[in-house]
Amino acid sequence: MLNILKENLRQAVHDKLLLGAGALLVIEGISTVAGDETLTAATGSEAVGGIGIFAGALLPIFIGVITGRICGTDLRDKTANYEILFGKKRSAVYLGRFFAALIVSCAVTLLVTLVPVCFMALRNGWGGSITAGNALLHFGMIFPFVFRLAAVYAALTFLAGNDLVPITVSFVGTLLVMIASFLLEDAGYALTWQTAASDLKTMLDFSNTTEGFLDGQDILVYKAFLSGGTVLRMLCTSFGIGLMWLAAGLAVYRKRDIS
Q1: Among 33, 81, 188, 251, which is most buried by a count of CB atoms within 10 Å?
Q2: d(CA 239, CA 74)
Q3: DSSP codes, 14-78
């Protein structure tokens, strides 16, 4: 499995589509907080809110693209089948590609969240909109969702046998989840743990704000707090549901005939 993992990471580094998508996501994240005239003076803590909304909306899509490309490209050209014929275990083929997709997804997530915030903090200071510890907790809690999303998309990729299905699902599915989430909110219901995209969006929602005062200036303060119970619930649902998808996808792939 380790050799398969290394090979897929090497291929991912040379995948022009993934490199372009990753670069676009980071650049767009920076422009989100620095390109708008109203945000050029934003501090690092103020940028946390903008990046949170940005990441909550786009990460589910980009993780689908990353997982689909890493897990699915070799399925279309039958490389995975050749590995099995030459003695590789199906679990190694499946998990090697999944963990490669997970590592790349985590790396992109780290860049998307930290680079823009650090950029604004170096430019305008940290500020007082949110504490650094609270910001790190929110950003750190993204990674369990990354695991869940990667597990779902990996299962879809191996079931479909190509990278087009998970990429399509990531775009269309995320859009439908966001629309359903807004409609249910208007009706007084909350869509949270039921899907990774909705739970991630809720966790990174910094729209609840108040006014504060720091260094002689009025500032925007995010009323964002993750209780211990909320963190535990997110960890359990993210890893629990993610492992279920991972196991289900692997179980089906083990029984599938080589074509």
Answers
A1: 33
A2: 26
A3: T-HHHHHHHHHHHHHHHHHHHTSGGGTT--HHHHHHHHHHHHHHHHHHHHHHHHHHHHHHHHHTT
For residues 13-42, average pLDDT: 68
Question: Cα–Cα distance between 203 and 191 in angstroms, integer?
Answer: 12
DSSP string, 126-172: --SSS-HHHHHHHHHTHHHHHHHHHHHHHHHHHHHTSSHHHHHHHHH
Q: Which residue's entry shows tokens 């380790």? A: 2
Q: Which own/partner contact pairs does 211-215 have at CB distance under 8 Å and 24+ positions apart?
A: 212/128, 212/129, 214/127, 214/128
**b/e map 161-179, b = 16+ CB within 10 Å:** bbbebbbebbeebbeebbe
CB atoms inside a 10 Å sphere around CB 220: 18
pLDDT digits (tens, 9 = 90+) for 33-74: 655 545 557 788 988 988 898 899 889 999 999 999 999 887
Which pLDDT does position 244 carry in this prediction? 97
